[in-house]
Amino acid sequence: MEKEKKDIFESIWSLLASVKLAISLLIMLAATSIVGTIVEQNAEPAQNIKLLAKFFGDSFAPTVYNIFAKLGFMDMYDSWWFLSLLALFGINLIVCSLERFPKTWKLVQAVQRPMSESVLKSLPVKKELKIKTTLSVAKDEFFNALTASRYRVLEATEEGSVQLYTQKGRYVRLSVYVVHLSIILIFAGAIIGSVFGFKGYLNIPEGSMYNVAFKSPTEKIPLGFSVKCNWYETLYYEEIDSPKDFRSELVIIEDGKEVMKKIIEVNDPLTYKGITFFQSNYGMMPDTVGKFILDITPKNGPKATVWLRYGDTFEIPGTGIKGTIMDFSPALTRDRGTGSLITYSENMVNPAVLIKFEEPGREPYVGWILKRYPSTGVLNGGHSVIFKDYWGVEYTGLSVSKDPGVWLIYLASILMAVGLYVCFFMSHKKIWVNIAEEGKSVNITVGASTNRNRLTLEQKIEKIVSHASKAIEGRKS
Amino acid sequence: MNSSLFFDISAGAYIAAMVIYVIYLVTRNSKVGITATAVTISGFVCQSTALLIRWVNSYYFWTAEHTASGVIESLLRAAPLRNLYESLIFFVWALILAHLLVEFKYKNRSLGAFVTPIAALVLLFIDVTGTSKEIMPLVPALQSNWLLFHVFLAFLGYAAFGVSFGASAAYIVLITESKFEKTYLFWSFIIGVFLIVLIAMGIDFLSLSAAQRVQLIQSHFLKASFRSSSSVVVAVSWISAGGFFLILWWFGYGLKNLLTKLSITPEMLDDITYKSIAVGFPLFTVGGLIMGAIWANSAWGKYWTWDPKETWSLITWFVYALYLHARFVGGWRGKRVAILAMVGFISVIFTYLGVNLVLSGLHSYGG
Q: How far away is chain A from the Cα of B20, in angstroms, using its nearest Cα?
């Protein structure tokens, strides 16, 4: 009974340690991952049924959809079987590495020993030559040549012969385990992130404040402090409606005090107490009346900022010119066909305010002032009314996340980059140089081996040999 | 100064080089071979110049709008790796660079005949699909220091994988013993699909007006052939495709004799396949996956969201990881690993073009 149990354990272990399992898992992960890139994930059923109808026809699509949904294809990367595959992959990686590590460690620790000439000649990289010189000169020059290539040379002397031997980069053999470890750390980081962190969102209207974020419309996550959006704005490139920047000013308020204030934009979030707010979305709030912010500057006078509502009237100080807010368009343009002014978007793509100006002794006149084109606000006489913003009608869409595992992901990234570099671009090289006296000459046999990149080692050996032989020649003269 | 003249010259040079490399294959005259290399190098120099000019132009384009931006920041934002057109051009540049390195290292010119057509096809693809060549303002999501490094390294990786694809395809032909081997059937199928899709896109291109061409992939993909509304056209397309497969399958085998005559050995091709994957894999992992994840985290707060681009790059990574493990610890050799190398590059094409053009997601800037 005991023995049987042990056998089962051993066979499970050897299955988990097998390369075949690793290969099968890689194939399965690659193949199944494809499904989720075709079927829209976490989407409305109708969307995927429409997609499936293209392949299976309208009548079968709902049935196929139900089967797919049962299999978890609609939220595939969170499904039990995909997570199990990943878990198995992780376990397989650990077991395989544990199984192989002792052997590699032995190779790393192994003491290099001198070898007989015949063994040297059987090595993958070898070179033989005969030079007229003495044993000690040849030994010195090969020693110098190897040392110049930064090898730490050992030597073994026998009657009439000497052997130099050296190795470099034995720790390179461990790099593959560094890469494997980094993958395990990524798994660990992902688990920590999903257990102790959260991913949510928060839409804050301009001027509003929240102390929670949302996982879903009904699921709230308390933040532990409040976040307020002072304003949101989309900046556009000149003359075209291609957005240049999305940004909002956020204020963090804790215990009634303002503790942080930052203008966030895409690629530049705000982080407070481990919770990060990213600019990810924006939009208009329906049926909301906002305030017009105007910068009013009389010619040669100081600038004044006013906040106004629809129908409000303001005066340009010291001029007697009065302005009244008449209308607003979030996206004003001139229709190419009819030439009339129209609003072409519900979003604030090209906000414009219509103002009626009344000046003593002149006919009243109206004009559109465009936010994106400040020159439209310069009046006759050099006064200016600049339209800064129609405030309070937009909201900023933030994604809110807390991920205490992310530092592990970064650490793993560094380990993986270093591990891969060492693994693919460095190697463990061993070199033996046997120098044997024969009359007035010496026979030199160089043998070398490496775990990777034989070609490079061959070139290196060529270089060392030519370096040493030139030095030996030089000594003669 | 305008970069398009230099781009046109380099495109012309690569197409000429392709022809000269093929002539070299047939005549095996070493002067022809040297000419092919010289033409490729001049094309490469022209293209490098064009890329630099475009970078400078983009730099001024950027600083005109972002007056507060510093020199380094502006250079990073202006790097010509910002849309589909620029990335395709850069892919060709990296591919030619990789090819020249292989040519000098292995002292064998004949591979040029297999790599330059890929470059020519990509350049053709740019024109056929009417990909916009304008310098466009950079959307906010791409305004990050990661852009340059992420795209640059990932594309060097793609180019290395491209070389491994060429070498493994040649390898399979070279070791095929009979036309009925499964590996060779697979080879004919893959190469056939590649060429047929390109030809079909060429037909799309010819059937469309200049204005419609811009939407070729999104709205008119294969609509002039396989997806035509006329069933006759569809039938003819499938029959011609079938015929094309047969011809390719029948005559593709002839490449073997040619390769043998050119003293290209299977060992050499296997070595090139491995070496280019050994270069491509770390570049792609670090530049594509790791930097992409870090950038995503700093822009969106999520380092991994399983969006199609991320998932496909992970699939690509799985395939090449499989190649490396199957070869080094799984004891796979020869055809089986060569097939993996081919599959890997198909996955690269999906990661790069398929996702940008067909599937939606966070990376949909390209189209």
A: 30
CA dist list (Å): A282 to A223, A247, A290: 21, 9, 16
Q: Are strands A219-236 and A243-254 parallel, antiparallel or unpaired?
A: antiparallel
The CA distance from B346 to the nearest CA of chain A, in Å, is 13
Q: Which two tokens mark A303?
A: 């600038």
| Largest Cα–Cα separation, chain B | 66
Where does residue B224 rank: exposed (0-12), middle (13-18), buried (19+ CB within 10 A)? buried
- Closest approach of A413 to chain B, Cα-based (Å): 6
Q: DSSP string spanning A371-409? A: SS-GGGGBPTTS-EEEEEEEETSEEEEEEEEE-TTHHHH
Separation of alpha carbons A19 and A24, rounded Å: 9
Across the interface, whether the CB atoms of B139 and A243 are under 8 A apart is answered yes
A401–chain B Cβ distance below 8 A for any pair: yes
Task: Say whether B299 and A413 touch across the interface (CB within 8 A).
Answer: no
Instruction: Please spell the DSSP secondary structure of A158-184, one letter per residue.
Output: ETTEEEEEEEE-GGGGGHHHHHHHHHH
Report the alpha-carbon distance of residue B259 to residue B263 in Å, rounded. Answer: 7
pLDDT tens profile A329-360: 998 888 888 888 888 888 888 999 999 999 88
Tens of each residue's pLDDT in chain B, 367 residues = 677 888 888 889 998 998 998 888 888 888 999 999 999 999 999 999 999 999 998 898 888 888 888 888 888 888 888 888 888 899 999 999 999 988 888 888 877 887 888 888 888 778 777 677 777 777 787 888 888 899 999 999 999 999 899 889 989 988 888 888 888 999 999 889 888 888 888 888 888 877 777 677 767 778 888 888 888 988 999 999 999 999 988 888 888 888 787 778 888 889 889 999 999 999 999 999 999 999 988 888 889 988 888 999 999 999 999 999 998 888 888 889 999 999 999 999 888 877 766 665 444 443 3
- Please report the residues numbered 370 through 399 in chain A whose beta carbons come closer than 8 angstroms to any beta carbon of chain B: 399
Chain B touched by A423 (CB under 8 Å): yes
- Tell whether A232 is within 8 A of chain B (Cβ): no
Among B residues 8-47, those touching chain A with beta carbons less than 8 Å apart: none
State pTM to two decimals.
0.87
Distance from A31 to chain B by nearest Cα, in Å?
A: 8
Please check whether residue B333 touches A, CB under 8 A: no
Whole-number Å distance between alpha carbons of B336 and B319: 13
CA nearest to A241 within chain B: B137
Chain A CB contacts of B281 under 8 Å are: 420, 424
What is the maximal distance between C-alpha atoms in chain A?
123
Count other Cβ atoms within 10 Å, centred on residue A55.
10
As given in the structure block, the two tokens for residue B288 are: 């594509």
The SS3 of residue B277 is: helix
- A166 and B CB contact within 8 Å: no
Residue A177 — pLDDT band, cuts 50, 70, 90? very high
| Global ipTM | 0.87
Instruction: Mark yes or no for CB contact B304/A269 under 8 Å.
Output: no
- Asked if the C-beta of B306 comes within 8 angstroms of chain A's C-beta atoms, the answer is yes
Percent of chain A exceeding pLDDT 70 equals 99
Q: Within an 8 Å CB–CB cutoff, is residue B358 touching chain A?
A: no
List the domains of chain A with CATH numbers: 2-107 (no CATH), 111-169+427-476 (3.30.310.80), 291-391 (no CATH)
**Predicted confidence (pLDDT) per residue in A127-136, tens digit:** 999 999 888 8
Buried b (16+ CB within 10 A) or exposed e, A143-162: bebbeebebebeeeeeeebb
